[in-house]
Amino acid sequence: MERKKREKFLKIFVPIILTIIIANIVFIGYKLLFNKKKHFLETIDTSVYAKITYEAIYGIHLNFKGTFEIPENVTDIKLILTDGKTDISLPYEEEISDNVLNFSTSKLNNTGINLEKLPLGTYYLMLKGIYHDNQKSYVKYYSVENKTYSDKYQKSFNDMEYYTLTKDGKNNKISFNWNTYENCPTLKVNIEEQKLPDDVYDITIDPGHGGSDVGAIGKLNNKEYTEADLNLKVSLKLKEYLEEQGYKVAMTRNDDSYVEIYSKNGSATLANETKSKFNFAIHHNSFEYEVDYLKGLEVYVADNIDFNFANILINHITSEAFATISPKETYCTEKGIYQRYFSQEEIDDDEIQPSNKTTQMIYYYNIRELGGIITNSTNDGRYEDYPKNPYYDANVTTEPYLLELGYINNEEDLKSLINNSDNYAKAIKNALVEYLNQ
Ligand SMILES: [Zn+2]
After folding, report:
1. 226 C-alpha to center of ligand 1: Å?
2. Which of 361, 350, 401 lies closest to 152, judged by CA?
3. DSSP letter at 32?
4. How far is the CA of 165 from the centre of ligand 1 (A)?
């Protein structure tokens, strides 16, 4: 009996089990070979594309502007990054005229898409149309095409690259690639962890003046203090504090040497050369005439920005370094925040005429030239005395701040600046940390 049973088992059940196993292998193999899942780009609507007319990265923020012909019956449109499964909603402002949607991620250059906060992955920039039909709702995805050609710069803006600020010793590399997928134009955004290349930094500090250019001069107890020295002292301390936070810091100078403006490591170029997210130009102020009521902090900023970070800087420097805020009204936009634009007279006096400067552009080169197209850099190589700004037509730039920490020829300020320079440096570091932790 025992033997018969075993024989029956081998003859009947083993072939059945083997057949089931083989059938499964064939079935799974077939699925893998012939039934490949559709790439989600094949599922999007390619009857119409959104046109991206502007792309720029300024500091830690990315902004897009674009237009889109509104499809029939759409009830809502969103701007997203998507991998086909997960959608990341992007900030989105819109204006509609003649059935054309004009959209923008922000009207201000230093808000919009915070690149420090995007999760790892591979995404595509898309518009998502939401439709309602017989109480059912469905969505359609629309891709984007590159229409960034600019008459002013005589070029289109293409791929972009960004490294996030160092955090716990780590960085992400974000690549933006204009591409096509089976004739469909796309903007692919790939975010992966990657160590900073040697020539990429987080922050640049530019201690103003140096060498033969001593800047302003102050006197206290018969001792002379030069602006160049005081700028360097605060800057070196700031570098130390930022490095303690793990940041990689580039300096336009580490000693009393003269810094060219447009050389590779120049005060108008190094921050972009090193892909730094922020540039701090450190200066001390002076008044030309006998107006000794002038004292205190002035923060010079670019145009068309949100003042959030500038205000945090002012709060920290006044509370931690006991600085007062300058009462100066000229160029003052908001308490402590200054925007100096070219005057018509300065434009008329420009070496090269017709000048490409306007009264809407910032006067100080260490703000205007550092932001490329975003801050309306004007040095396109027209001047004989100095070379062209290599980042004149750049759309990926640092976010510049020019700090006039106090008046070197005001006795009270000078005392504080000499004795307190560590606190000024610590306050700037703390302001950056607070801003980035928001
Ligand atoms: Zn200065």
Report:
1. 10
2. 361
3. H
4. 28
* Residue 167 DSSP class: B
Q: Compute the distance from residue 214 Cα to the ligand 1 centre, in Å.
A: 9
Find the farthest-apart pair of alpha carbons in the chain and give their distance in angstroms, rounded.
121
* CA 293–ligand 1 middle distance (angstroms): 19
Q: Indicate the burial class of 329 (C-beta count within 10 angstroms; 0-12, 13-18, 19 or more).
A: exposed
Size of the chain, expressed as the number of residues it contains = 438
Q: Is 133:140 a contact under the CB 8 Å cutoff?
A: no
Could you give the angle at which helices 421-437 and 227-244 cross, rounded to 10 degrees? 40
Q: How far is CA 231 from the centre of its chain?
A: 26
Burial class from Cβ neighbours inside 10 Å (0-12, 13-18, 19+) for residue 57 reads: buried
Q: What is the mean pLDDT of each run of 10 residues along the chain (438 residues)?
A: 66 79 75 70 93 98 98 95 96 95 98 98 97 91 98 97 98 98 96 98 98 93 95 98 98 96 95 98 87 88 98 98 95 98 98 96 98 98 95 98 96 93 98 97
User: How do 278-285 and 399-407 pair as beta strands?
Assistant: parallel
Tell me how far the alpha carbon of residue 354 lies from the centroid of ligand 1, in angstroms: 29
Kindly give the distance from the C-alpha atom of residue 402 to the centroid of ligand 1, in angstroms, as a whole number: 9
Ligand 1 geometric centre to CA of 256 (Å): 14
CB of 366 within 8 A of CB of 281? yes
Match 């990429």 to its residue by tokens: 200
**Which residues, at least 6 apart from 145, have a Cβ–Cβ distance to it below 8 Å?**
49, 50, 51, 52, 185
The whole model's pTM is what? 0.91
Angstrom distance (rounded) from CA 314 to CA 326: 11
Domains located in the chain, CATH noted: 40-193 (no CATH), 203-437 (3.40.630.40)
Three-class DSSP category at 10: helix
* Distance from residue 406's CA to the centre of ligand 1 (Å): 11
Question: What is d(CA 425, CA 418) in angstroms, rounded to the nearest whole number?
Answer: 12
Interval 284-298: pLDDT, tens: 999 876 566 799 999
What tens digit of pLDDT does each residue of 252-279 get? 999 999 999 999 899 999 999 999 999 9
Q: How far apart are CA 299 and CA 313, in angstroms?
A: 8
Helix, strand or coil, per DSSP, at residue 402: strand
For 63, the token pair is 């902004």
How far away, in angstroms, is 203 Cα from ligand 1 center? Answer: 20
Phi, then psi, of 158 in degrees rounded to 5: -115, -125
Q: How far is the CA of 366 from the centre of ligand 1 (A)?
A: 11
